[in-house]
């Protein structure tokens, strides 16, 4: 049995990307995706931001609003490998990670990579899989590696999981535990298109599916360079303080049983950097943070029973926190 | 009545109540009608314009026009069209009236007749204040500021006529101010539709709430405490408590020109402008003092008058046996008193209107129901004997069996004083020796100083204070001398009247500054002989008496600040401005011209009245916040230190001033967006400022400051243009940002204090906490449990 493992070499240092180049490329991808999903530019922008922040995305919405379309369009716009896993209760962890099978010719076990070995993984209806399978996926998401039979295999870069789940249909599902929801950088809802967008959608889809005609506007290498460029965006001490204040406020809020984790803080900051870069800036603003706070923080909070009973939801709580936390904290006050 | 009309009415009523102290300034109540009319016209005009939905600017203009109409109707004097429309001639006439009023204010002392220039000026001033008051209370809804206008109105009578303004006049203005505040707060609270009781129930507006009762009680308590504090706290010693006490004694109720028949052993002199009281024509080359009251009742406070008996006819007057008989004709200019001022020993030929009789005991000519206010002029003959010092030295004292002995030597028993007198008299045995010894004791060479105010040395008896501090004016000198003589068994009494006055051509003019107090001592034979222990330097128009050589002052008293400043007054001396030299000249009794008295003019003429300074300060005070705010803005936008941060600070303050709500949780760009909505014309400027601030704070490269100052100015003018009138004035005169800074600073201090005390409490608690035996989980985890 060979002990095969990927050497884990550091990626080649990419050439620095100027903010303008970053912005142009990002806009190219966005325009491309918007061609498929009409009237949802903000959601698409946030989805791309999560991707460039090396986070994973949870799309939670009712069926048929374009969750899978969004994931596919995003994947196609970037020239990289896309895998799709349709989660079902009988899906096994090895279907996700891959499995070692005996090759009679070589008289040895050979590793057959699973669906996870791609750049973009589309996990459809993730809450239908058994917890066993879910946790196998989540290890990959966090560690960016797969361990099968004692061998560790590095996953590709860029690597992003776009999982979808249906919030309405709960029959026969295994809702994601809090710990696993925390792995997703952001949760987005797409929502129904408005009247005009829906009309435009009908017109465009009369002849063909625009998804089929989609051409990639960036390749994996470009994405890696963009990720690196986004990490270089300047974060002022005041801004870091603001983010920390926001996250801390979720922990002290009376309506919340469990607040956001430090991982949330990190991911919020990284998404903020990307959003700033997509705007052509080399420094982040609190405005960026505010755009991201609900998608990044809301799904991690566990509201108190009273809040749930009262019909409150965590998005409202985060919005409320945004309205009350000062952008610049006053050292004189406590 | 709707809110606006109600507030207008309250504003007018409070102003009217605040004007009540003017009663002390004017004669009669005739002035109230035009004053109330003015206030009513202004309030009605303002209210109508408001009801018509006009802005503050138009309201103010209309109220000014209303004032003009009232003034034209009242003082147009035929120059106006249709009585109310002013013509250029009207304004010329107004200017003339104003000049006349100003000179009348300088010339006359209260109470004055409310007519002509004075009434014009009064109405004009009250009208302006009424407009301001209405603006503060109703237009700008800042009743706290209206306190300034009320204060201005209250201070006018108080500063013009402090004596005529009794302490209780403070109550009405204070009540009216509290009313104003209460009414506004009620209006504010009622705006929510309901009021709360203390028990937390909602009640309708008219329901008598227990909280309102508490508020009324605390307001009453506040006024009471203020009055008591004013009574106790020795502010500007013009003796609030003394005045209160005097009012109760009825001391100052004497009419104008009458003298307060008291010789206090302590007190202070404070008297406004001099008023001409009498004009004397006499063939006496050097008239002495005009006697009015004789005070022979001695208490520990000082000398007071006995009840005059009158009874004896003026025809019984027979003079004092002097050789030179003079005739005096006295013209009454302003005197109101129940006694007739007379020189020396009047003899027959007393020519005066009304019923007057002689109190034989004291020689005072007292009215039987008549008053000097009814007398325009009177004349009489008199002699004023010049005694020979040698004669007096030989003369004996009063026989102790004399029936007058008792009342003229009675005195309180003060052992300390007895010791002082024994010491001062030494071996003096005759009356004259005793008199000279006392005069010597009270002289300048013994350290006595003329001042307008006595000091308190903490003794029980006021006379001991005077003898110890050696500071006082004529009342103390005269009372002390008479008392010391009585102590030495010499009959003596205090006389109050007028000094020589000043020469005016052939006549002598006596002003209210010439009131004086001196002493009469009884010698067997000559009878009552006059002495004046007060240093001549302190008394204009003082006369020296050759039979009692007053020791000359060795050090020139004109250097004493107490004696050389401030007009003095009741019931004695005039201002003591550098009058030492003429008074020295008065030693030669033959030279009548030397005793030059200074009338109030020499003081008033120097042209500076502290009341004007006070008014100026009151006018300037409301603009202090505006100036402060302007300086702050200028400093922030100063090109030398302009950064995006300072510009943004200014933007935030502007937003506060103009009531644009910017939450702490807004980012600079969002805040700029909100400002852009509030001032659409300056949207670009606001965005530029917001972006600059964002760059300054979050970008590693910082922000460019070019054009920021102009952007701030654009934003300012645009905000100003879009604001309501009320808000605009408020932003200028009373900027909310300044207020917030002040309160924030205070809140910070409070919280710091609170934290410190909380820490201290924790520490103390931790120190005294005993280890607790408990079965809480923490303990379990340590000890474990089977």
From TrEMBL, chain A:
<dbReference type="InterPro" id="IPR011703">
    <property type="entry name" value="ATPase_AAA-3"/>
</dbReference>
<keyword id="KW-0378">Hydrolase</keyword>
<dbReference type="Pfam" id="PF17863">
    <property type="entry name" value="AAA_lid_2"/>
</dbReference>
<protein>
    <submittedName>
        <fullName>MoxR family ATPase</fullName>
        <ecNumber>3.6.3.-</ecNumber>
    </submittedName>
</protein>
<dbReference type="GO" id="GO:0005524">
    <property type="term" value="F:ATP binding"/>
</dbReference>
<dbReference type="InterPro" id="IPR041628">
    <property type="entry name" value="ChlI/MoxR_AAA_lid"/>
</dbReference>
<feature type="domain" description="AAA+ ATPase">
    <location>
        <begin position="53"/>
        <end position="194"/>
    </location>
</feature>
<dbReference type="InterPro" id="IPR027417">
    <property type="entry name" value="P-loop_NTPase"/>
</dbReference>
<dbReference type="InterPro" id="IPR050764">
    <property type="entry name" value="CbbQ/NirQ/NorQ/GpvN"/>
</dbReference>
<dbReference type="Pfam" id="PF07726">
    <property type="entry name" value="AAA_3"/>
</dbReference>
<dbReference type="InterPro" id="IPR003593">
    <property type="entry name" value="AAA+_ATPase"/>
</dbReference>
<dbReference type="GO" id="GO:0016887">
    <property type="term" value="F:ATP hydrolysis activity"/>
</dbReference>
UniProtKB/TrEMBL annotation, chain B:
<feature type="compositionally biased region" description="Basic residues">
    <location>
        <begin position="766"/>
        <end position="775"/>
    </location>
</feature>
<feature type="transmembrane region" description="Helical">
    <location>
        <begin position="31"/>
        <end position="49"/>
    </location>
</feature>
<dbReference type="Pfam" id="PF13559">
    <property type="entry name" value="DUF4129"/>
</dbReference>
<dbReference type="InterPro" id="IPR025403">
    <property type="entry name" value="TgpA-like_C"/>
</dbReference>
<dbReference type="InterPro" id="IPR021878">
    <property type="entry name" value="TgpA_N"/>
</dbReference>
<feature type="domain" description="Transglutaminase-like">
    <location>
        <begin position="466"/>
        <end position="535"/>
    </location>
</feature>
<keyword id="KW-0472">Membrane</keyword>
<feature type="region of interest" description="Disordered">
    <location>
        <begin position="541"/>
        <end position="602"/>
    </location>
</feature>
<feature type="compositionally biased region" description="Low complexity">
    <location>
        <begin position="559"/>
        <end position="578"/>
    </location>
</feature>
<feature type="transmembrane region" description="Helical">
    <location>
        <begin position="117"/>
        <end position="137"/>
    </location>
</feature>
<keyword id="KW-0812">Transmembrane</keyword>
<feature type="transmembrane region" description="Helical">
    <location>
        <begin position="166"/>
        <end position="182"/>
    </location>
</feature>
<dbReference type="InterPro" id="IPR052901">
    <property type="entry name" value="Bact_TGase-like"/>
</dbReference>
<feature type="transmembrane region" description="Helical">
    <location>
        <begin position="214"/>
        <end position="233"/>
    </location>
</feature>
<feature type="transmembrane region" description="Helical">
    <location>
        <begin position="7"/>
        <end position="25"/>
    </location>
</feature>
<feature type="compositionally biased region" description="Basic and acidic residues">
    <location>
        <begin position="776"/>
        <end position="786"/>
    </location>
</feature>
<dbReference type="Pfam" id="PF11992">
    <property type="entry name" value="TgpA_N"/>
</dbReference>
<feature type="transmembrane region" description="Helical">
    <location>
        <begin position="144"/>
        <end position="160"/>
    </location>
</feature>
<dbReference type="InterPro" id="IPR002931">
    <property type="entry name" value="Transglutaminase-like"/>
</dbReference>
<feature type="transmembrane region" description="Helical">
    <location>
        <begin position="611"/>
        <end position="632"/>
    </location>
</feature>
<dbReference type="InterPro" id="IPR038765">
    <property type="entry name" value="Papain-like_cys_pep_sf"/>
</dbReference>
<feature type="transmembrane region" description="Helical">
    <location>
        <begin position="61"/>
        <end position="85"/>
    </location>
</feature>
């Amino acid at each position: 049995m060979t002990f095969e493992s990927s050497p884990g070499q550091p990626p080649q240092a990419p050439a620095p990307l100027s903010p303008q180049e970053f912005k142009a490329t990002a806009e190219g991808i966005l325009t491309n995706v918007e061609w498929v999903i009409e009237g949802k530019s903000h959601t698409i922008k946030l989805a791309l931001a999560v991707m460039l922040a090396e986070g994973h995305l949870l799309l939670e919405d009712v069926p048929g609003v374009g969750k899978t379309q969004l994931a596919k369009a995003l994947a196609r716009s970037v020239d990289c490998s896309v895998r799709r896993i349709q989660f079902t209760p009988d899906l096994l962890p090895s279907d996700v990670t891959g499995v070692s099978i005996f090759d009679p010719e070589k008289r040895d076990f050979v590793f057959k990579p699973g669906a996870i070995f791609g750049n973009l993984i589309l996990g459809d209806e993730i809450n239908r899989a058994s917890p066993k399978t879910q946790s196998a996926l989540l290890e990959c998401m966090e560690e960016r590696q797969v361990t099968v039979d004692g061998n560790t295999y590095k996953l590709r870069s860029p690597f992003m999981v776009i999982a979808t789940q249906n919030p309405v249909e709960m029959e026969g599902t295994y809702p994601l535990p809090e710990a696993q929801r925390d792995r997703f950088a952001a949760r987005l809802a797409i929502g129904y298109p408005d009247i005009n967008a829906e009309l435009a959608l009908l017109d465009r889809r009369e002849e063909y599916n625009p998804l089929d005609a989609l051409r990639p506007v960036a390749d994996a290498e470009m994405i890696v360079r963009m990720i690196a460029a986004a990490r270089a965006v300047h974060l002022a001490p005041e801004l870091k303080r603001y983010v920390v204040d926001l996250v801390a406020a979720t922990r002290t809020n009376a309506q919340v049983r469990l607040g956001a984790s430090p991982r949330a803080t990190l991911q919020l900051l990284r998404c903020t950097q990307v959003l700033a870069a997509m705007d052509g800036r080399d420094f982040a603003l609190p405005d960026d943070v505010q755009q991201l706070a609900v998608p990044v923080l809301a799904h991690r909070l566990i509201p108190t029973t009273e809040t749930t009973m009262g019909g409150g939801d965590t998005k409202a709580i985060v919005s409320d926190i945004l309205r009350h936390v000062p952008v610049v904290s006053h050292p004189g006050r406590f | 009545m709707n809110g606006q009309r109600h507030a207008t009415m309250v504003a007018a009523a409070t102003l009217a109540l605040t004007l009540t102290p003017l009663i002390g300034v004017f004669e009669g109540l005739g002035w109230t009608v035009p004053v109330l009319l003015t206030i009513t016209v202004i309030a009605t005009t303002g209210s109508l314009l408001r009801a018509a939905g006009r802005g503050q600017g138009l309201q103010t203009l209309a109220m000014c026009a209303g004032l003009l109409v009232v003034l034209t109707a009242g003082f147009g004097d035929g120059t106006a069209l249709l009585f109310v429309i002013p013509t250029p001639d009207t304004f010329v006439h107004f200017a003339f009236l104003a000049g006349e009023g100003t000179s009348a204010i300088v010339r006359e002392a209260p109470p004055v007749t409310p007519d002509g220039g004075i009434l014009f000026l009064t109405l004009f001033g009250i009208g302006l204040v009424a407009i301001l008051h209405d603006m503060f209370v109703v237009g700008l809804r800042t009743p706290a500021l209206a306190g300034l206008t009320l204060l201005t109105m209250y201070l006018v009578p108080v500063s013009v006529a402090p004596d005529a303004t009794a302490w209780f006049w403070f109550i009405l203005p204070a009540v009216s101010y509290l009313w104003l505040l209460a009414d506004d707060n009620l209006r504010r609270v009622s705006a929510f539709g309901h009021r709360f009781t203390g028990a937390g129930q909602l009640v309708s507006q008219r329901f008598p709430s227990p909280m309102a009762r508490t508020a009324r009680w605390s307001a009453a308590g506040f006024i009471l405490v203020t009055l008591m504090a004013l009574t106790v706290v020795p502010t500007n010693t013009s003796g609030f408590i003394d005045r209160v006490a005097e009012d109760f004694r009825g001391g100052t109720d004497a009419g104008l020109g009458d003298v307060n028949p008291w010789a206090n052993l302590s007190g202070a002199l404070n008297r406004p402008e001099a008023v001409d009281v009498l004009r004397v024509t006499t063939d006496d080359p050097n008239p002495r003092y005009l006697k009015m009251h004789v005070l022979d009742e001695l208490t520990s406070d000082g000398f007071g008058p006995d009840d005059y008996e009158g009874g004896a006819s003026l025809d019984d007057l027979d003079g004092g046996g002097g050789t030179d008989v003079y005739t005096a004709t006295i013209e009454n200019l302003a005197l109101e008193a129940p006694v007739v001022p007379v020189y020396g020993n009047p003899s027959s030929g007393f020519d005066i209107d009304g019923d007057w009789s002689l109190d034989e005991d004291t020689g005072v000519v007292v009215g039987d129901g008549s008053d000097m206010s009814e007398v325009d002029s009177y004349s009489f003959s008199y002699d004023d004997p010049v005694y020979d010092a040698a004669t007096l030295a030989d003369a004996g004292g009063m026989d102790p069996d004399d029936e007058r002995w008792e009342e003229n030597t009675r005195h309180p028993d003060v052992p300390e004083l007895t010791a002082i007198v024994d010491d001062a008299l030494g071996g003096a045995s005759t009356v004259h020796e005793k008199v000279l010894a006392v005069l010597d004791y009270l002289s300048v060479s013994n350290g006595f100083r003329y001042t307008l105010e006595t000091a308190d040395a903490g003794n029980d008896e006021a006379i001991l204070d005077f003898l110890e501090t050696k500071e006082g004016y004529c009342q103390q000198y005269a009372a002390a001398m008479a008392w010391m003589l009585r102590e030495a068994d010499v009959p003596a009494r205090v006389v109050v009247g007028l000094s020589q006055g000043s020469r005016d051509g052939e006549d002598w003019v006596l002003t209210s500054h010439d009131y004086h107090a001196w002493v009469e001592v009884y010698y067997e034979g000559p009878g009552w002989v006059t002495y004046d222990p007060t240093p001549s330097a302190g008394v204009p128009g003082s006369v020296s008496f050759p039979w009692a050589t007053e020791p000359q002052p060795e050090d020139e008293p004109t250097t004493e600040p107490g004696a050389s400043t401030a007009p003095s007054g009741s019931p004695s001396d005039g201002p003591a401005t550098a009058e030492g030299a003429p008074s020295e000249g008065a030693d030669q009794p033959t030279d009548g011209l030397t005793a030059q008295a200074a009338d109030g003019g020499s003081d008033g003429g120097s042209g500076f009245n502290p009341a004007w300074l006070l008014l100026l300060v009151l006018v300037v005070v409301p603009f202090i916040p505006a100036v402060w705010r302007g300086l702050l803005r200028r400093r922030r936008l100063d090109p030398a230190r302009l950064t995006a941060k300072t510009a943004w600070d200014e933007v935030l303050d502007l937003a506060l001033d103009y009531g644009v709500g910017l939450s702490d949780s807004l980012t600079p760009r969002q805040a700029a967006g909100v400002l852009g909505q509030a001032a659409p014309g300056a949207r670009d400027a606001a965005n530029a400022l917001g972006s600059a601030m964002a760059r300054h704070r979050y970008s590693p490269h910082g922000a460019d400051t070019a054009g920021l100052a102009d952007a701030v100015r654009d934003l300012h003018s645009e905000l100003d243009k879009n604001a309501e009138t009320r808000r605009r004035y408020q932003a200028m005169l009373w900027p909310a940002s300044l207020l917030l800074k002040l309160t924030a600073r205070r809140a910070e201090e409070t919280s710091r204090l609170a934290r410190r005390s909380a820490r201290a409490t924790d520490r103390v608690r931790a120190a005294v906490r005993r280890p607790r035996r408990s079965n809480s989980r923490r303990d379990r985890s340590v000890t474990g449990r089977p």
